[in-house]
Write a structure and sequence with these properties.
The chain is mostly helical. It is 51% helix and 3% strand. A two-stranded antiparallel sheet has the order 1-2. The protein has a two-stranded antiparallel sheet with strand order 3-4. A hairpin with a 5-residue loop joins β3 and β4. α5 crosses α9, α7 packs across α10 and α9 crosses α10. The longest helix is centred in the last third of the chain and has 25 residues. 25% of the residues are buried.
Length: 274
């Protein structure tokens, strides 16, 4: 017992216990941590086809090795794409934001310049240049079986993390320096998921460690449900919030009543008497 007690007081005993504890914590976390979204591995033919498309349509801004091209003033024509992942390419090219038609504070959504197959090939090539988020599989974007409770949870996440820019119903909103948060109406579930994991332009990145893939799916389900809801009160006012709705009420509602009162006062029976 005395020998065992002596070993317990050894100067390295604390370090050994700490290392064992860290190993146990790491093992438990790896077992219960949320699994990140994964996509199928691209073929060699897709990668080569994507490289050819990149050299023709993207290298003039992003460089032949996709590391970006700097300007004399220290800026860049196009940022480095090394490590952005396939999801970023699929979002930017699939929504028509890239290639940009002209220089602007923000790349707007427009009709895509590339087909779905070409977009997939470009994404496959960029994915080989460095580790990055993959294009989410359908299991992470399919919301057909969501329950009311899951949609409600998605709404809580959306209102906590997204409404400051996108509005409570995804109508979008203005940001400083000519930038803006786009409206989410009509955006596909895949592109919403890709935006959350890549953080395009002004949007922050919500990794799978911050918001799990299941919670992201619930957010997408909430956005889709809000878009399908009818305006029970009549005119929705664009869903821009209580301040804008109050402004509409003040100008149109009270303003209309004032105009009606003035008209009645000007055309009353006593006005016509001489």
């Amino acid at each position: 017992m005395r020998k065992l007690s002596t070993r317990r007081r050894h100067p390295l005993a604390g370090i050994a216990v700490l290392l064992v504890a860290l190993g146990v914590v790491g093992g438990v976390y790896s077992a219960v941590a949320p699994e990140p979204a994964k996509a199928a591995t691209a073929s060699t033919q897709d990668v080569e086809a994507g490289r050819q498309l990149f050299l023709i349509g993207c290298a003039s801004c992003h460089g032949k090795n996709a590391s970006g091209i700097e300007t004399k003033r220290g800026g860049n024509y196009g940022p480095s794409l090394i490590g952005v992942g396939a999801a970023a390419v699929d979002f930017q090219v699939g929504t028509g934001r890239m290639p940009m038609a002209k220089t602007a504070p923000q790349a707007p959504k427009k009709d895509p310049e590339y087909t779905a197959e070409e977009t997939r090939q470009l994404a496959a090539y960029i994915a080989t240049l460095g580790a990055g988020p993959a294009i989410p599989d359908d299991e992470y974007t399919d919301t057909s079986g969501k329950t009311a409770e899951q949609i409600s949870e998605g709404g809580e996440f959306f209102r906590t993390n997204c409404t400051a820019c996108h509005n409570s119903v995804g109508a979008g909103g203005a940001l400083p320096n000519g930038k803006y948060a786009p409206a989410l109406d009509g955006v596909s579930a895949k592109h919403i998921a890709e935006a959350m994991i890549t953080g395009p332009q002004q949007m922050p990145v919500f990794s799978d460690d911050v918001i799990t893939p299941e919670d992201k799916s619930n957010i997408i389900a909430y956005i889709q449900q809000v878009q399908d809801q009818p305006n029970y009160g009549g005119m929705g006012g664009g869903g821009l919030g209580p301040v804008v709705d109050g402004l509409f009420t003040w100008i149109i509602g009270i303003g209309g009543l004032v105009i009606a009162a003035v008209w009645i006062g000007a055309h009353g029976a006593r006005v016509k008497k001489k």
